[in-house]
Fold:
Amino acid sequence: MTYRLDMTMMFAVHDALRRDVERVAKLTARLDDDPRRLLGAALGWELFKGYLRVHHTTEDDMLWPVMERTLAGRPDELALLAAMESEHALIDPLLASFDEALADPDTGHERLGGLADSLATVLGGHLSHEEREALAVIDLSVTEEEWQRFGQEHGKRIGADAQRYLPWVLDEASEERVSFILGRMPEHIQKAYREEWRAAYVALNTWGA
Structure:
């Protein structure tokens, strides 16, 4: 589908979230070590949770309210926005359940596999639903200026962590996507990513060797 608004970063973030859900599933399925230790010690788990929350809360604060005003009187579209908010509301409790299981020395390890399956189902289903239906409504109802404000607010909430966030988004992305996204950024950001940020991110070994 062709969009009026630039959805490149939206799809890139969604793909990064899906990638990390797969990594969580692999760690929780490990039989050669305690998955609580593996996941609890993984910086990638903390980055995933933090960036997921920024992404969803910025949508909740900067996209859905704007769209609700624009789409007043259109019940189907408003129902879709309500579904987006409801799906978001399922995710934080699920992340909290993960952290509770990681902190449980007795039976926590027994819950991680089921929680990983739930995360894949809930978050994966939401991302697919958003791409399948909500992005078209965003494209229809959000102005270019509003879309830019959403992106700017998202960036503000990432803040000083941009030097880890950008390599996180682009981790395992195709060179074509990397070049396309970087090409829309200021030259000093491109240079920092190529010469410093990417290597520093790889050195963090966010999910363990």
The chain has ten helices and no strands. The two ends are 38 Å apart (CA to CA). The chain has a mean pLDDT of 96. The first helix runs from residue 8 to 28.
